[in-house]
Specification:
The protein is an all-alpha fold and 101 residues long. Helix content is 74%, strand content 0%. The mean pLDDT is 87.
Amino acid sequence: MGSFANLVLFHLKETAIRMKNSVPTIIKYAKVELIPPKPSEFREIKQGIGNVICAYKNKSYKNLTIKEVWLNTLITTEVILWFFVGEIIGRRNLVGYHQKL
């Protein structure tokens, strides 16, 4: 049992060292990537949505490279998954809402 405890302690120490080195990087990127859009950025967002609608109407999406399609697919998947995570957090339950009978 002692060797198991030593192994667990060793892995905990290694994890703490790795986290100590990576936490500043995570915080640096979180400050940039996780902030909501500023009012000045709404024009760019509107233009981006307009470009997507225009591309759909003109069927210019057929000219995208595989790399661009893959990137768009990953971004769409990320947005959808974050939506579901937000729903789970909002419900405070993994499945369904609490019903009072």
